[in-house]
């Protein structure tokens, strides 16, 4: 869970579709708890893999989530980081294999201001 500058709450987790796999769900709620938007992440390779999220941070007008992704047949999870605009549009998704090509999963993340990026 992360609270944005406006007081809105951003939540991330995973849902299990019956008979299928895990999918990441990100939602934004107003300070009073009203649902503003909810998005389910679908990777480019389709819905046959597992996507799990364990961390989220709201930073400026962006929301970042992190966790893991396992494609069907690969058997080994990779790091997954997602960047959403605070309006709910996915801006990018980054999948990275860690050293040794084993069970990679990110459990938390943080964002910091960078004067050079402003």
Explain the overall architecture.
It is a single chain. Helix content is 0%, strand content 49%. The protein has 118 residues and is an all-beta fold. It has one domain. The strands form 2 sheets. Strands 1-2-3-4 form a 4-stranded antiparallel β-sheet, with no helix packed on it.
If helices are DSSP runs of H or I spanning 4 or more residues, what is the number of helices?
A: 0
Mean pLDDT: 82
Strand order, sheet with most strands? 1-2-3-4
Number of strands: 8
N to C succession of SSEs? EEEEEEEE
What's the Cα radius of gyration?
Answer: 15 Å
Sum this structure up briefly.
The chain is built from no helices and eight strands. It is mainly β and 118 residues long. The protein has one domain.
Can you tag this structure with a few keywords?
single chain; 118 residues; mainly beta; four-stranded antiparallel beta sheet; 49% strand; globular
